[in-house]
């Protein structure tokens, strides 16, 4: 029987083909291809991918013409095959990929607008998540995803005592609120600190380190998040931690995760490093 071809998608957002982000993209394409992957790149700027989520994303009649609700309308459009062609094309890429890498420069502590638009428009309800298929029970629980990005700031500026604050806090909305919410196993981010202010040998070392990591990327343990089983998933229970879980956490030195800190110190590097052992009160998802 022929071996199944592994697939990867790189969602890429940078305007310049001469950028360090472009070099990182090209290194990933080459290394993954050498490993036998079929790699697809969605070059969002080159594609002039539309970032704004509008009525134009849906063909045919709306279910509610009085009040346009994008999430509700695109869910039904996805179910009925009425989403715009550019969204459908990207969704097919996601379906085929077992690994997705988001490559971008950090803009205002987040992704560039064009990449945020990709997330808003492509990860529609029904396709990427539902109310009973989210987080560790999510639709993409068999896929891996990660952020790979450059910063303008130095690493010391993104520490808990640095000017910009803890990078783990900055990454929580993207890694938990978007990727993990859709079920992805989230690999630790690859962060390239301030390459624009680094000499060429340092940038070359960054590229070498990225290529080296890619060789064993799929064998890495993903980041840990609080699984749904720790929460009372009902409106009556407020979708909050079960009382017994909170009681068990009282004796722990750190909070459960970056987002579920419970008023305690944040677990060190919760959003940047996969722990070698199971985190207290959490498990792989």
TrEMBL record:
Required co-factors: FAD; Zn(2+)
SUPFAM superfamilies: Flavoproteins (SSF52218)
Annotated segments matching region Disordered: 250-285
Enzymatic class: oxidoreductase
Catalysed reactions, as listed in the record: 1-(beta-D-ribofuranosyl)-1,4-dihydronicotinamide + a quinone + H(+) = beta-nicotinamide D-riboside + a quinol
Subcellular location: Cytoplasm
Record-level GO cellular component terms: cytosol
Known EC number: 1.10.5.1
Domain Flavodoxin-like fold, residue spans: 8-210
GO molecular function: dihydronicotinamide riboside quinone reductase activity; metal ion binding; NAD(P)H dehydrogenase (quinone) activity
Keywords: Cytoplasm, FAD, Flavoprotein, Metal-binding, Oxidoreductase, Phosphoprotein, Zinc
Purpose of the protein: The enzyme apparently serves as a quinone reductase in connection with conjugation reactions of hydroquinones involved in detoxification pathways as well as in biosynthetic processes such as the vitamin K-dependent gamma-carboxylation of glutamate residues in prothrombin synthesis.
Assembly and interaction partners: Homodimer.
Family recorded in the similarity comment: Belongs to the NAD(P)H dehydrogenase (quinone) family.
Protein name, as recorded: Ribosyldihydronicotinamide dehydrogenase [quinone]
UniProt organism field: Pleuronectes platessa
């Amino acid at each position: 029987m022929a071996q199944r071809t592994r697939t990867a998608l790189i969602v890429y957002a940078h305007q310049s083909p001469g950028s360090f982000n472009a070099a990182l993209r090209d290194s990933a394409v080459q290394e993954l291809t050498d490993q036998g992957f079929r790699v697809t790149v969605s070059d969002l700027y080159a594609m002039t991918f539309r970032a704004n989520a509008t009525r134009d994303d849906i063909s045919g009649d709306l279910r509610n013409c009085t009040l346009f609700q994008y999430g509700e309308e695109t869910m039904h459009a996805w179910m009925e095959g009425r989403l715009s062609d550019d969204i459908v094309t990207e969704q097919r890429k996601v379906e085929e990929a077992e690994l997705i890498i988001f490559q971008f420069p950090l803009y205002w502590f987040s992704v560039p607008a064009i990449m945020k638009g990709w997330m808003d428009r492509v990860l529609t309800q029904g396709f990427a998540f539902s109310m009973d298929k989210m987080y560790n029970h999510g639709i993409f629980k068999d896929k891996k995803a990660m952020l790979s990005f450059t910063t303008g700031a130095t690493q010391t500026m993104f520490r808990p005592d640095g000017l910009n604050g803890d990078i783990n806090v900055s990454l929580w909305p993207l890694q938990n609120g978007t990727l993990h919410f859709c079920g992805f196993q989230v690999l630790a981010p690859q962060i390239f600190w301030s390459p624009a202010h680094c000499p060429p040998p340092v940038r070359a070392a960054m590229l070498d380190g990225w290529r080296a990591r890619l060789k064993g990327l799929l064998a890495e343990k993903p980041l840990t998040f609080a699984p749904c089983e720790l929460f009372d998933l009902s409106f009556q229970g407020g979708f909050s931690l079960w009382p017994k879980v909170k009681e068990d956490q009282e004796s722990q030195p750190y909070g459960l995760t970056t987002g579920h800190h419970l008023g305690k110190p944040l677990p060190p590097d919760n959003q940047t490093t996969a722990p070698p052992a199971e985190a207290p009160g959490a498990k792989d998802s």
